[in-house]
Automatic annotation (TrEMBL):
The keyword Signal applies. This is ABC transporter substrate-binding protein. Residues 1-30 form the signal peptide. InterPro entries: BUG, Bug_dom1, TAT_signal. Coiled coil: none annotated. It holds the Pfam family TctC. Keywords: Signal. The keyword Flavoprotein does not apply. PROSITE patterns: TAT. Belongs to the UPF0065 (bug) family. It comes from the Bacteria.
Length: 330
């Protein structure tokens, strides 16, 4: 071996040894992780579906990670994107994670013209942690009891459908319905799910599409008539309500999911350990029971790489739908 070869080999070894330091976590620190509280940021106020999922998982994660407290931190505003941006800018040291829904890390890529982050560039995906379909429901006075009857009715008169706001998943689900039923499906955005549901109940609009947990109790009480679950399979929370696929509209698939991501350049060893802990947490019987009560179904990724692939596919799908509809967040 020549002197030049030896020198080059030493340089390569030195670079390899320094890599964990450049990533912000030395090998010893990676082994010691976690040694202090972990922030799990949610971009919405307490009580919403993102917050509920985070608070179900946090105690179980604390136990699985050796007692390092997982603290849920609500950083609200701009449809969840303020909290997401704070995580994108956080130190990639394994002590800040984001729990986010489809609207925050997939749909926002197309509906926010000046989004300060790029999901696939600025985050290290960890795993999916749950999902919930949308529920299509109508005011009880609307003469339609099936999805096909809603479509037929929309070909004879205007049907106004409310959502929780422009540019979110419920809005895009209404656009999918509009593609099938025609131009007389009219989207009416509200500021939040409660206001959208109140006007659907009062008859100010004829229908609503919303995350199933947000309005299922209103349907059970007869204040709304449940028409379809926008998924491939029925929801355990409303097993008697048929899916859009069962009713002959396979294009009307709108599922809200929840994922956990870290800042980009978070050490791979930490991402893998968090993936393992989250997978165990989601599959824990106690967590699953709490999920069921909240209307959330368990969903995990086989690996962080698989999570990234899923996010990329969802960004592409919802981006195309949003651009075709001209949807913009407000």
């Amino acid at each position: 071996m020549t002197h030049r070869t030896k020198t080059r080999r030493r340089a390569l070894l030195a670079t390899a040894a320094a890599a964990p330091v450049a990533l912000g976590l030395r090998p010893a620190a990676a082994q010691d992780w976690p040694s202090r509280p972990i922030r799990l940021v949610v971009g919405f106020p307490p009580g919403g579906s993102n917050d509920i999922v985070a608070r179900i998982l946090a105690p179980k994660l604390t136990a699985l990670l050796g007692g390092a407290t997982v603290v849920v931190e609500n950083r609200t505003g701009a449809n969840g994107t303020i909290g997401a941006d704070s995580v994108a800018r956080a130190a990639p040291d394994g002590y800040t994670f984001l729990l986010a829904s489809a609207s925050v890390v997939a749909i926002s890529m197309a509906t926010f013209p000046n989004l300060p982050y790029d999901t696939l560039r600025d985050f290290a995906p960890v795993t999916m942690v749950g999902m919930t379909p949308e529920l299509l429901a109508v005011n009880p006075q609307v003469p339609a009891r099936t999805l096909q009857e809603v479509i037929a009715l929309a070909r004879t008169r205007d049907l106004h459908f409310s959502s929780s706001g422009n540019g979110g998943l419920p809005h895009l689900a209404i656009e999918l319905l509009r593609k099938v039923a025609g131009e007389r499906i009219i989207h009416v955005p509200y500021r939040g799910a409660v206001a959208a549901a109140v006007d659907a109940i009062n008859g100010q609009v004829q229908g609503i599409i919303m995350d199933l947990p947000a309005i299922h109790s209103m349907a059970r009480e007869g204040k709304l008539r449940a028409i379809a679950v926008t998924a491939n399979a029925r929801s355990p929370l409303m097993p008697d309500v048929p899916t859009s696929v069962e009713q002959g509209v396979p294009s009307l698939i709108a599922v809200n999911w929840f994922t956990v991501v870290a800042p980009a350049r978070t050490p791979e060893a930490v991402v893998n350990r968090m993936h393992a802990a989250l997978t165990r947490a989601v599959n824990d019987p106690e967590v699953r029971e709490q999920y069921t009560r909240a209307g959330v179904e368990p969903l995990t990724s086989p690996s962080p790489a698989a999570c990234r692939e899923y996010l990329a596919a969802e960004i592409e799908r919802w981006g195309a739908i949003a651009r075709e509809a001209g949807a913009r967040a407000s």
